[in-house]
């Protein structure tokens, strides 16, 4: 169909309120947030046709979200506006290395009230990939609506992408979280987890054993484990590739994993490759490109810090002591667009050229 999307995402749109202490006062800075929206932002910047399915309040926060999501070239026509429930807020605290912790204002807020009638037919048949995350599985009615829509999309041949996002403050218990996060993986083809989430889901502290446990337990065709400064591990049923990230001045890691995943999905679509078709060469090209996207997301917002140096970044990420804290996060919405994955010269696995594609 002519209006078919490359990627649609189903899930939360929220405002990340980044909290810093300045002069004895707590200061809050609002930024567009929500993991599914972040994934689409990166994919749209890489030339993919994307759309967001969500619900926000008919309030100033909802206006802010819709305006900036649309400015990022993500279709907002499927974002419903709720008169009775406010937009969700997340409070983000950053440590000296730019790592974050979360608390949420999400009790009967708009995205939680998304029901099946709010999800368009395009999400179950009019997109190549449907992406969702576990925050949509925390409570009703959004949980049942999400699982029903994802199951219908999978039955229609849509590729399902999933992020089992572990946010402890949102769940009643660890057991309930583990069960529902697993429900999502039962439906997923492409899965991204952090190393922390891998341990939580499997109980395995050994990376290889944790990966093997997920691959044996669920029908996923591709699994990516993001490891922060250590890079990532990408696995299919036939290939397993580990690669370091890029040496950048890390200001804030919020959304870096989402940027990594948005670039992963965009690369697979651009190259028209299924996970089963990846060999060691193409898998490494994919990992390098996605790692570059995640590193790019964390760069400072200062104009002087962009573009990054043309020289090849180190294959090792700087330790936390070399990272610098900033007063605000570095959202993709306000950065120059990287070139599409097709423009990155990765035919010989050249990390230098992969990095330059994000200049």
Rg (CA only): 19 Å
Give the class from helix and strand content and strand pairing: alpha/beta
Give unreliable regions as ranges.
301-353
- What is the CATH top level name? Alpha Beta
The major beta sheet can be summarized as: 10 strands, mixed
Structure explained in plain terms:
- With 359 residues, this protein is α/β, with parallel strands linked by helices.
- The chain has one domain: 3-Layer(aba) Sandwich (UDP-N-acetylmuramoyl-L-alanine:D-glutamate ligase), CATH 3.40.1190.
- The protein has nine helices and 14 strands.
- It has helices spanning 35-45, 60-71, 142-155, 174-185, 195-202, 207-217, 256-271, 280-297, 351-356; strands spanning 5-10, 14-22, 25-33, 50-57, 74-75, 79-82, 88-94, 100-105, 127-133, 159-163, 190-194, 222-226, 232-236, 240-243.
- Strands 1, 4, 5, 6, 9, 10, 11, 12, 13 and 14 form a ten-stranded mixed β-sheet that branches. A four-stranded mixed β-sheet has the order 3-2-7-8.
- Helix 1 packs across helix 7 and helix 5 packs across helix 6.
- The protein is globular, with a radius of gyration of 19 Å.
- It starts with a strand and ends with a helix.
- 50% of the residues are buried.
Short description:
It is built from nine helices and 14 strands. It has 359 residues and is α/β, with parallel strands linked by helices.
Please outline the helices and strands.
Elements: E1 5-10, E2 14-22, E3 25-33, H1 35-45, E4 50-57, H2 60-71, E5 74-75, E6 79-82, E7 88-94, E8 100-105, E9 127-133, H3 142-155, E10 159-163, H4 174-185, E11 190-194, H5 195-202, H6 207-217, E12 222-226, E13 232-236, E14 240-243, H7 256-271, H8 280-297, H9 351-356
Parallel strand pairs: 1-4, 1-9, 2-7, 4-5, 4-6, 9-10, 10-11, 11-12
Antiparallel strand pairs: 2-3, 7-8, 12-13, 13-14
Helix pairs in contact: 1-7, 5-6, 7-8
